[in-house]
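Hey Z.,

So I finally got round to the ribulose-5-phosphate thing we talked about over coffee. Here's the setup:
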Amino acid sequence: MTQDEAKGLVARRAAELVEDGMVVGLGTGTTATKFIRELAGRVQKGELKIRCVASSDASHELAVSLGMDVATLVELPELDLYIDGADEVCVSGGGELDLIKGGGGALLREKIVASAAKRFICVVDSSKLVKMLGKFPLPVEVVKMALPVVEPKLAALGLHPTLRMKKSVSQGLKPLLSGAGQNAKAEALAYPEAKAYPVALAYPDALAYPDAKAKDEANDHEAPGTGEPYVTDEGNYILDCACGRIEEPEVTAAEIRGIVGVVEHGLFLGMATVALVGGEDGVREFRA
Ligand code: 5RP
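And the result:
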């Protein structure tokens, strides 16, 4: 089973868990996109009448284009269910589900929408399950003008921050690399599961374009020397932190939150109530 198929499997299962009349939070990313499409299919067949709140402009636009009723938190401040992917999922010693999210740049709105939901079901393929968080670079969303203040403070914590850069096709990366960096890029683009590798820190465009043709398009649009920082839906920058093993996530989270100018970080600790994990064995379920 490919990673893409595993994502499709959990997306379908998650869509089956949505009940008529619910208010549903829509996540962001490739798995969430599959979920939105599955859910829209059920709505279109008349199986469900639901209202939704999206965690990004992209998911909002997709859901609207599929004929779904999408509102904002102003109208729907309480949600029954939030369904979203993750970059890493760790079942902690205490049985809680801890996540790293934000590979797709939507961590702030994702955390807000998740916090408004009674239940958060995380949907991932099995490559996202880890024993300890931190292999995937931890995204930290930062107010633009605070960047010169926040970056050295994150570096002083040993978190190795790198400013995420925009790609020329619908926001991603335009990295200014040469030599070994270019090889790393080719490697990231060649592997759909590139997110699992630190190089994905520098090339999230590889993540956004699951098929080779689209990746090529993204590649073609890259012109050296014209890189700009990635900007989130809320108008902030993202620093991707190559932390390595995050031994004490609560401590790391508190240290990052303590820096003035940090808006949010991608550690979602104890927020998910269920993780659905797709793989060769079908869908495994982990409950917090
Ligand atoms: C976006 C996210 C995504 O949920 C996360 O990056 C997983 O993405 P995908 O389902 O494409 O693997 O946090 O900000």
